[in-house]
Design a protein that fits this description.
about 775 residues; binds beta-D-glucopyranose; 33 strands; 5-stranded antiparallel beta sheet; alpha+beta; 3 domains; Beta-galactosidase, Chain A, domain 5; globular; Maltose phosphorylase, domain 3
Length: about 775
Amino acid sequence: MCWTITETDQYDQAAIDRLGNKFLVGNGYFGYRGTLEEYTKEQKTATIVSGIYDRVGDLWREPVNAPNGGYVQVSVEGQPLNVLSGNVKCHSQSLDYAHSVHHRRTAFETASGNMVLIIARRFASLAHPHLLCIEYTLQACRECEIFIQTGIDGDVWDLNGPHLERMAPSTAGGVICLSASTHERGIPVAVCERTLLPGGEETIFQGEKRILREVRARINWTHPYIFYKFVSIHTGVDSTAPLEEGIALCNRAAAEGFEKLYQEHCRLWERRWQECDIQIKGDEEAQQALRFSMYHLLAIAPTHADTVSIPARGLSGQVYKGAIFWDTEIFMLPFFNHAFPAISRNLLMYRYHTLDGARRKAAEYGYRGAFYAWESQDTGDDACTLFNVTDVFTNRPLRTYFRDKQVHISADVAYAFWQYYIASGDESIFLDGGAEVIFECARFFLSALYYSPERDRYELLDVTGPDEYHERVHNNAYTNLMAAHTFETCLKVRDLLLARYPAQAQALIARLGFARDLAAIESALKKIYLPGPAKTQPVIPQFDGYFALEDVALPDLLKRKLHPHEYLGAGSGLATTTQIIKQADVILAMFLFSERYTKQEKAANWEYYEPRTEHGSSLSACSYSLIAAQIGKVDWAYRYFMKTATIDLTGEGKQYVGPLYIGGTHPAGNGGAWMAAVLGLCGIRCASDMIHIEPRLPEHWSEVNLPLAYRGQRLNLRLTQSEVEVQAAEPLTRGVEIELGGAVYRLPESGALTLSYLPEQVGQSA
Ligand code: BGC
């Protein structure tokens, strides 16, 4: 099986944008777009550093794109070798996603008929989070002189910049540097570069926003010219002396040498794959798409800090303000929970570190507790604006209520803490801040409830659920269910802490003044309205009055559009008065609360909502895959799995909302691919006491092998069309129980168990 993806002769603007995302390399600290070395800001080169944001004037606050230390321009016979200026004989770009290494190979024909070949490879070191390494090779058919310019280009691509000011080039021994500070807070940013250029007399060119080395050399076919670039990226967010640390890192890297660093980097990536790789036998396409999805999650996963999380477009650019949405908690966390629980913990701790921002937002809206930002950045204050979409017809900003009304975000955060605990058994997360987050989220919902005296129940009015096309609705089923779950989680965590860590529990409750709220939460939980399937109406109304909206078919609604990018929601969007929804809403709730609903109820809801869902968000497909698998619609489960798993392979996702460019990678879609494969088609559901397995493998999947981290134990699972084998990957430290087809089995001391099943027998209990 090949672990490399290659594209040839792709360099029109659309392809440049697409490959920039697709071929991104990253190590969680920074992402480096899959552009070519000679590209500049017009081709969207970017080094997006996690956790540093900046705002210019009243434009959107967004992540900082650091100066590009990977810049190289070679000229021969006075002509720059640049794929954009023509004379390309053949060109390919590829990504070795087993190791996160980008390769390019381009042959140029010069004016005199000589052939010059460029071969380059680069990686964002997994061992050294601040280091980018590049190897650049030149070869020519006939001997010729080459002129190389390489260094740091500070004239970067920004959506709402420029963010970097007081740019200062400098040199320190063999290292060249470009330092700057951010506009809003004056945070220092330093990019340094040490290049090993063989032979040639090197001169340094210092421009306003760039510092380059220039060298001339002679090359031919038997004497290729090879040089190495070691680039460091530091900011004041994570370093006390960014420039000095950068210089030292470049020198250390140069002393180690490219090959050693490359080997070390590859070993670390291989170790990662050992812990998470899933092998699907019988389906090369699905295999590649799933691995590629996991690659994109791994390349942006923070292993270096617990103060940052994963933005909705990863580290592929500044789209969506580099903000963290519920995408991370609901769609990415399951993968990390079962492959790299330590990364999950980092992601969750980010929510603890931003709790004060959530408290400020709750207070701003007159609530108590924690109302998490819809678009969260470094402080936890909401980056989401009140006018978040621009009307394509009038070019005026539209009032949207994402920020004000998507209260489910606080429940999503609480849900994620609990899921992490279920998967890992790690109670310390509650003591380290998780309990405080959950308590404050529960307190928020307590203050948001409305008591209806006629119905003697608590309701949540004037909210927006996951389906953003219907804003300001009452009793969105997803939101009410999630709020109730937050209350339940709050009480379970209280009980757990009081039983196991009574002194700490009591101190926390006293510090938060939470005792009275706990009593109120207990009684609210008994009376919160949970819209559910009724005998006469098995379909759950997405919100009060949903069924009374116009029931138009999706293709007919789309025919009403006057502009390809017009927004279907907000005040008067086409979908707002209809039953057409943007993304999975009830269907997602049915997955998150799988045990609550029967198969018949799930089937009725899937059949109803599936044709009414536009999938205007990349978060949508996986939920339809998951429920399709649970109701035995394996062909649909597969179709939606492939839709989510190929999103960054094809690059065909939605690129615009109104006139706004929203392209980039789709980590939630990538996480959704893992969920659809493992939790859906393989049918794995981890509870605190056992693992339930209900395989629904597509017919052509003859075997799936997957590792699973479960409550501190690493397991390997093998599923075929008739067997499930569970094997402990390390000596058993705890009892593990497996439920299959209604029977419960215990993993024996030997650590291996093989069970047979008939596909029609599993799932009888649901
Ligand atoms: C979706 C949200 C999502 C956001 C970021 C929006 O289009 O509707 O649910 O959180 O994109 O991915």
